[in-house]
Amino acid sequence: MFWVCFIIGLVLGSVFGAIAYWNIEGVKGVIVGIVVTLAFGLLFGGGVYLEAKTKADKWNNGYCPNCNIHWTPYGASDKTLGSKHKYYYCEECYTEIEI
Ligand SMILES: [Zn+2]
Asked: What's the 94 CA to ligand 1 centre distance in angstroms?
């Protein structure tokens, strides 16, 4: 999972890396280009990975970690920044999660 995101990040980062490479002459341009590409890959890969991991931890395979019963869906948010959130609660202890 992390590696997939990291590689997508590298591809996106390479665009910015290439811009840096074209704008800075010589070896410095190459180094800055590589650093920018890697930094973007790590940031993007790490960010997406952490987000996915946090969601998976909360979801806990669909079961409340306290009571081991299935989450009950009770709503969904409006789309905010392109991502829609769904809400679930536990019928036993009323723990709520937002995915
Ligand atoms: Zn519960």
From this structure: 6
CA angle 44, 65, 92 (to 5 degrees): 130
CA–centroid distance, residue 89 to ligand 1 (Å) = 8
So where are the chain's domains?
A: 1-60, 63-99
Which pLDDT tens digit goes with each residue over 47-79? 988 988 999 999 999 999 999 999 999 988 887
Ligand 1 centroid from CA 81, angstroms: 30
Task: Specify the pTM.
Answer: 0.64
Nearest to 31 by CA among 41, 16, 40, 20: 20
